[in-house]
User: Fold this.
Amino acid sequence: MIVLFINAFHDATHGALFKKSKHNEWFMYIFEFFGGNHWLCMRRHINLHHAYTNVPDWDIDIKQSDIIRIFPNNPLFDYHKYLHIYMWMIYPFYSLNWIYIRDFKDFFGKKDNYIKKVVDKIPTDQTYKMFALKVTNLFYLLFIPMMLLHQPWYIILGGWFAMHLCESMLGVVALVSTYVDEDAHFPGTDEDGNLSATWVMHQMIVTKDFSIDSKLANFLYRCFTHHIADHLFPGVGHTYYPYITLIIRSYAQEYDLPYTSYRFYHAVRSHFRILKNKGVQGNIMMTGEI
Ligand SMILES: [Zn+2]
Assistant:
């Protein structure tokens, strides 16, 4: 499920899976059966994430609640000193939160709703579709197995829950590896709303590749392992990314542009340290020890 999200559906969101845009759109309806909402996903991914990658207050993929503290200007709470411990217990709920909470917040949330920055009004038919497909998703994943499999209901529920935990951990590894490590940049805008770097330069500064030579990582996450290619050439299918990455790397070397690629475990360890440092740093400042 998560491998399809990351690769096939991601390509379709960019119109890169089929030649005709309507075929890409039709394909995205399969995404709905997995619990996602393709209308929302396209606004989030294209209009907010790709257009404003790593820009605080605009890139919806780095939007945080107060539970996590990544940016120095985020509010600081005492419990953030345990960030590096409890976040690894929260990350396994990523897909459940995404499918059954965050989508509803994006549709109906009034406070700090990023979707409303790029969409004047959410079409009513999309709201009905969202409700209908969320119900369908739960119906075939939970109710049909409960009726047909002659298993206690809690076994089915446990299986469904375990599926979400596993896919969340697989997904979170890719997300934190490409964006939120210790060298991550989160460029802000000036008072006119402009970024200082050019579009290409910005993408190369804020986006990273990971484990580009690993067969397993590429099988699972090719859209993420070769993430700079996705950001510079979003309209190209992910099977071409390794070839594009070679060109990007030599171009970056020739013109002295930033190109970063980590091993996946380095990126995950680095994310762990960022969680730890933010908490510790913040607490020292808060208690006035510095
Ligand atoms: Zn993309």
